[in-house]
Amino acid sequence: MPDFPASLYNRRTIRKYSTEPVHDQLLNDLLTAACRTSTTGNMQVYSIIVTRDAKMKIRLLPFHFNQKMVTEAPVVLTFCADFNRFSKWCRLRNAEPGYDNFLSFMTAAIDALLAAQTFCVAAEAKGLGICYLGTTTYMAQSIIEALGLPKGVVPVTTVTAGWPAEEPEQPDRLPLAAILHSETYRDYTEADIECYYAEKEARDDSRQFARENNKESLAQVFTDIRYTKADNVAFSKTLLQVLKDQGFMNH
Amino acid sequence: MPDFPASLYNRRTIRKYSTEPVHDQLLNDLLTAACRTSTTGNMQVYSIIVTRDAKMKIRLLPFHFNQKMVTEAPVVLTFCADFNRFSKWCRLRNAEPGYDNFLSFMTAAIDALLAAQTFCVAAEAKGLGICYLGTTTYMAQSIIEALGLPKGVVPVTTVTAGWPAEEPEQPDRLPLAAILHSETYRDYTEADIECYYAEKEARDDSRQFARENNKESLAQVFTDIRYTKADNVAFSKTLLQVLKDQGFMNH
């Protein structure tokens, strides 16, 4: 039986890259694999913007909250939901596209995200390191301007890639049982939560993280510092405005 | 240099499955790999509902427009955006969660989709066949009821998996150049569209598909039959209502 690459189990996010280049041929091989990913109705309603230019990386940097991977990685990829190309094709063929709505945005975002993840799996199997930047949905409007994205196109995630220059510890994960539900959703009791989060909270790095942030619990680091309600609400409003501006809320 | 599995290039969606079971151990191995996928801030804000029960498959079947993979596949997986578990943990730790908003839905949906795709890559590397069901976002409300998903949980995609009982042709893809943009988005001219869609439109199966549907072009099959504006608008409204009902639109 064929086996899948050990990198699927051993993976860790890589934020420091060596100066060794990622050659065009390798990048193209990885992107070719990514474009074999499942896509709704074989429409391929996504685009990938490849950033290699140092000036463009500097321009993108603040939109990714100055995370240094943006300028230090040899390759930055912005995966975009894209109904622009498909709709242009339809109009050229006397077919009236009806993709200026929220469902179509979700369809295209799903296409883009699945392709992104295939790229990452393929890259890691080749020994490259990758890091996803969650900032893309927060700062979509600025990224749209920087990359010149037309109506019908919305960036949904960004991946930095390069040869690893660090070997970080593998991060913890919740027990598989915490994520899985058999047949129907079994809502979590307090005892379940205690059980599933016990190992994570007992870790030295978790305790240190809370201490460094002057918080009494790891959870408070998330709610009060890393992913606050105020930020989430503000970014929600701007993201919904982006969907409207990019032509995905006409209903 | 390690190599990635040939299945990344050779893949095709599998809709017919043999009666050979997918054993729990293999499924758990694949799901364990999926849970190693990148996740925003290591929050793992997703859940996976495993459907193996024949009665539950029959219940889900109409919500996936009676696609026979739902009842014929040994395993059906519904990947859900889930801020319920994480928010429960926060509240137990004197931390006030602020994840009842659209941005948080997108964050959780991204987590769920990336994990889904790792599952699929791993499954295909092991020789299994998979099929994504796009119907999940259309019929989210009914799926929520069938699977008993509480507030904070929204299904975003469904994957059927099993041992292949067919060897379909590999579907076509647009040339890589159609998907990629270097540095900035280069919007498509009519000549670009003609060039990128020429091979797809010249295929016998594309022509046959248009003919069978009594359409003058392949594009019209998409706009008039497969993914119509009326359906997209209706599903957009119900999906936005689902996000509201599940507690992701409080801003």
Please describe what this structure looks like:
Two copies of one chain form a homodimer. Chain A has 251 residues and is of the alpha+beta class. Helix content of chain A is 49%, strand content 13%. Chain A has helices spanning 7-10, 24-34, 54-60, 69-72, 84-92, 102-125, 135-138, 140-147, 176-179, 190-202, 204-212, 218-226, 229-245, and strands at 46-51, 75-82, 129-133, 153-162, 180-182. The longest helix of chain A is centred in the middle third of the chain and has 24 residues, at 102-125. The mean pLDDT of chain A is 97.
Note the topology.
The structure is a homodimer of 251-residue chains.
Chain A: H1 7-10, H2 24-34, E1 46-51, H3 54-60, H4 69-72, E2 75-82, H5 84-92, H6 102-125, E3 129-133, H7 135-138, H8 140-147, E4 153-162, H9 176-179, E5 180-182, H10 190-202, H11 204-212, H12 218-226, H13 229-245
Antiparallel strand pairs in A: 1-2, 2-4, 3-4
Helix pairs in contact in A: 2-6, 11-12
Q: Give the mean pLDDT of chain A.
A: 97
How would you characterize the largest beta sheet of chain A? 4 strands, antiparallel
CATH architecture of the domain at 7-168 in chain A: 3-Layer(aba) Sandwich
Helix vs. strand class of chain A: alpha+beta
Question: How do the SSEs of chain A run, as a string of H and E?
Answer: HHEHHEHHEHHEHEHHHH
The order of strands across the largest sheet of chain A is: 1-2-4-3
What is the number of E strands of chain A? Answer: 5
Please give the alpha-carbon distance between the first and last residues of chain A.
49 Å
Multimeric organization: homodimer
- Backbone shape of chain A: globular
What is the CATH class of the domain at 7-168 in chain A? Alpha Beta
